[in-house]
Amino acid sequence: MKREHNIVRNQHKTRYMPGLDGLRAVAVIAVIIYHLNPQILSGGFLGVDTFFVISGFLITSLLLHEYRETGSIDLKNFWIRRFKRLIPAVVFLLMVLVSYMAIFHLERLAVIKADFIAALIYLANWWFIFEDVSYFEALEANPLKHLWSLAIEEQFYIIWPVILLLLLVLVKRMSRIWLITFGISLVSLIVMIVLSVPLEDNSRVYFGTDTRAHSLLIGVLLAYIFPPFRLKKEIDTGSKVVLNLIGFVTLGILIYMFTFVSASHYWIYAGGLYAIAVLTSLLIAASVHPSTFFANKLLGNPMFVFIGQRSYSLYLWHYPIIVLSNTYFVAGQVPIYVIIIQVILTFVMAEVSYRFIEQPFRRNGFKAFGFSDVINRTRLIVVGALGVMMVLFLTGVLDDPIDKVLETREQQRDYEEMAFTSSIKTIEQSIVNEESIRTLEPLFIGDSITVDIQDEVLYRMPYATVDGEIGRQLWDVETLIQGNYANYTETDDIVVLQLGTNGVIAVDDMQAVIDQLDEATIYVINTRSPRDWQADVNSMLNEITENNENVHLIDWFGISEGHPEYFSNDGVHLTPLGKQVIVQEIVDKIDEMSLE
């Protein structure tokens, strides 16, 4: 079926743009793969930027065409169409999530209650900023976190038509309107650059409407100069060749970006996202022209069109399905059969939403949920039941049972951890010379993993100095050593460095820390962290150990491979067994090097 938002009307006919749905398919597939495993497609999050540029282009094209034909823009009618297009699917998603979580994840409902409200009123992005939520942090993943982008789009749909109408009425000349819009996009870019910080979590920049508006506005700028309603189906061969070439080249570059760009790369916040939006606008130009092979045959192939038509539903459903099912497994070590089930379930729920919620509501509004036939009655009963669950949740009726479940489960976890910790302390540590190890005075510097293992380290090496800090980054360590541990520079001094959980590490910065420690015997622990920077961090640590004779690698990534029992569900922090194993490996390595 031809979708309203992919249709551009002119005086003579209605033209559907299959290439645009094909591009949506590419974008949503990239996002889904990124959320399944960022190690596979570390830049898949850029698919959201593709959606932003498409939205800016398409909405502005429709508004410009309406103004051209009628001399005005019916804002009320536009907002009603957007309401019918977007809100029913989100409400259905939230209803299902409340019902599912009330049965299977009751303890998490209380935690994300405010997130539900923020999602309903399309302010999720600003709520996450206010709550200091990280987009890139996998710990305690929120099944609604992906709705930040829909909030930005809805805010754009409310504000932009008013601004555009004022520009058309007051400024009139399209060249001046283009310059004004371009200027606004540059302001958004500048705000992003000013607020971003190298080597830190830039979620504030990533979530902000102010800092992401430029991607939408790049699409707007394309609509000014390349409106679909002015494109001719018959153009000369040379122009076709150029458009096809632009399409293939820009699509290739975008796929390369999806594959190799990382959210930890500072350049994407220092103008990179703006450049990617410009690249995407060129790709859109090639995707919407009615004369090109690229638009009609490649991106417009039936499979891509099918996926693209359901891209909104796929985006809505994939993330909560992945997040909630992953709670039963260690992050980064989810079995392949589970991933296959996640993908299948995503497509099934997206199809249900598309066929039985989105399409009927778009065509018939609330009449689609009447009593006129069996299908409508069934739909009304199901949606009504889900709605009751959500109302009970939002009004606090479920809060008391949630609190009781939380208290019971917390007590059980505490009991299990105490019992297990007590039992492992009785295990005889006979692999190395315990007496010699207990007399050592090593220095441990690290992040939350070092905090995790502190008690186990001090149990094995009571004279050790353990300096761990949650969220610690490498750039904090150079100052820390200079101020507190400048005397750890001799061959007999032992320093254990555990870093890389929270972000990328630059080789030069790590080498500067190594140089500070001079001739000390240094052990670096590589990372197992299901983030897109894991491979970069471990590769850098390999390089450091190869280039420095006094630096030795403890391969925690390799040791822990295939051992989900070492980790809590986040795939990073350690269970009591994991703490014991990693400390034993450190002790073994120190003992091994002392014998050489």
From TrEMBL:
Residues 18-348 form the Acyltransferase domain. GO terms for cellular component: plasma membrane. Its main location: membrane. GO terms for biological process: lipopolysaccharide biosynthetic process. GO terms for molecular function: acyltransferase activity, transferring groups other than amino-acyl groups; G protein-coupled receptor activity. SUPFAM superfamilies: SGNH hydrolase. It is found in: Cell membrane. Keywords: Acyltransferase, Cell membrane, Membrane, Transferase, Transmembrane, Transmembrane helix. The chain crosses the membrane at residues 21-37, 43-65, 86-106, 155-171, 178-199, 211-229, 241-261, 267-291, 312-330, 336-357, 378-398. InterPro entries: Acyl_transf_3_dom (IPR002656), Acyltransferase_3 (IPR050879), GPCR_2_secretin-like (IPR000832), SGNH_hydro_sf (IPR036514). Belongs to the acyltransferase 3 family. This is Peptidoglycan-N-acetylmuramate O-acetyltransferase.
